[in-house]
Amino acid sequence: MKAAVYYETGSPDVFRYEDVPDPSPGPGALLVAIEAISIEGGDTLNRLGGELTARPHIVGYQAAGTIADVGAGVDRFAIGDRVVTVGLNGSHAEKRVVAQSFAWHIPDGLASNDAACIPVAFGTAHDCLFEFGRLQPNESVLIHAGAGGVGTAAIQMAKQAGARVLATASSDDRLERLKPLGLDDGINYATQDFVAECRRLTDGRGADVIVDSVGGANLQRSLAALAYRGRCISVGDASRTPTSALDISSLRPNNQTLTGYFLGADLFLGTRAYGMVAEQIDAVAAGRLQVVIDRTFALADAAEAHRYIESRRAFGRVLLIP
Ligand SMILES: NC(=O)c1ccc[n+]([C@@H]2O[C@H](COP(=O)([O-])OP(=O)(O)OC[C@H]3O[C@@H](n4cnc5c(N)ncnc54)[C@H](OP(=O)(O)O)[C@@H]3O)[C@@H](O)[C@H]2O)c1
Questions:
Q1: Residue among 2, 6, 212 at smallest CA distance from 94
Q2: Mind listing the pLDDT tens digit for each residue in 217-258?
Q3: Within 10 A of 18 (CB to CB), how many other CB atoms are there?
Q4: Phi-psi region of 159 (alpha: psi -120 to 50; beta: other; left: phi over 0)
Q5: Residue 55, number of CB atoms within 10 A of its CB
Q6: pLDDT > 70 in the chain, percent
Q7: 278 CA distance to ligand 1 centroid (A)?
């Protein structure tokens, strides 16, 4: 099969489009012929400096397609089923193998392109807001990186839950485009101090829930924007500057909480998250939630697609099509 591979991590230039051996499904696993690959925020970070599991390495968490073969003991799927799949790597290819516990049926009528974008971004957004953020109607939430995959999902969910929705992005234009999804107040962090602006917009209270997928120095500042009893969820390092040290001394006097979140942990260690993700897929299929797709590239142009995302022009998801 063809795959977008790399031998060393680094800039998008590391990608090579090469022939690699077809994977084959072991017990309990599915071989999927990929139709659409969603480039996740974590894919660009892994390409930049993640672990290489093999040389060449095939990056990528998430892809949708049709089952071409099944391993022994597969009982929930059959050849020909349409599925969206999640794995620690392997999405940037024509085929991938995943355990059946990391695949979800795609409902009839839901396009593979849309399905490809759902599990990680929508599952993460839902868990950050509700399972770990305990967001309540009439509370306020600040969603960082609002124009990203997690952000565009979280804005819709928070609005539908009856919350006041604040989000950050790097330009006024990006914030304007978030309004139809449910954004109440946008904060352009390139021109505004998001802590001061968050406090101004909440009459000094701060945000009840903050979803911080930016990390680095941003995370420390998020703690300063929390309300009394506020909950901050640290979910990512989109800033490309991991948080090295954090001063949590402001949390205790204000009964605040900082929680780390990794969807993979809940998918690996229990069954709740699998069902929660299935509900997000159903919500998109039913039209209650919307996948935001910016544009598609051919798989052979993976380098160009990653470059486009890192140029900060992508709004929502960018897809690769094998
Ligand atoms: N823990 C988990 O389970 C989990 C699950 C999903 C995602 N994540 C993490 O959450 C983060 C966001 O994921 P995503 O899929 O929403 O990513 P994405 O769609 O690629 O969006 C990332 C956003 O980050 C913003 N950003 C801020 N600083 C940036 C920088 N230096 N370079 C590039 N973008 C920057 C960009 O918006 P502006 O230009 O408007 O700032 C961009 O829209 C990633 O770090 C990802 O690894 C974690």
A1: 2
A2: 999 999 999 999 999 999 999 999 988 899 999 999 999 999
A3: 14
A4: alpha
A5: 9
A6: 100
A7: 23
Measured distance CA(5)–CA(27) in Å, rounded: 26
The answer to whether the CB of 175 falls within 8 A of the CB of 183 is: yes
Nearest ligand 1 atom to the CA of 170 is 40
In this prediction, residue 98 carries a pLDDT of 98
> Who's near 136: CB < 8 A, 6+ residues apart?
163, 208
Residue of 41, 82, 76 whose CA lies nearest to 64: 82
φ/ψ of residue 175, rounded to 5: -65, -40
Full-model pTM: 0.98
Q: Is 154 in the pocket of ligand 1 (CB under 6 A)?
A: no
Tell me the C-alpha distance between 210 and 34, whole Å. Answer: 35
Per-residue pLDDT tens digits for 290-299: 999 999 999 9
Q: State the pLDDT at residue 41.
A: 98
Cβ atoms 34, 95 nearer than 8 A: yes
Best residue among 312, 315, 318 to mutate for probing ligand 1's pocket (most ligand atoms within 8 Å of CB) is 312
Alpha-carbon span 51 to 64, nearest angstrom: 23
> What is the whole-number distance in angstroms between the Cα of residue 19 and the centre of ligand 1?
30
pLDDT value, residue 243: 83
Residue 257 CB contacts under 8 Å (≥ 6 apart), including other chains: 230, 231, 232, 251
Query: Beta strand 293-298 with 29-38: parallel, antiparallel or unpaired?
Result: unpaired
Give, to the nearest 10 degrees, the angle between helix 41-49 and helix 302-310: 100
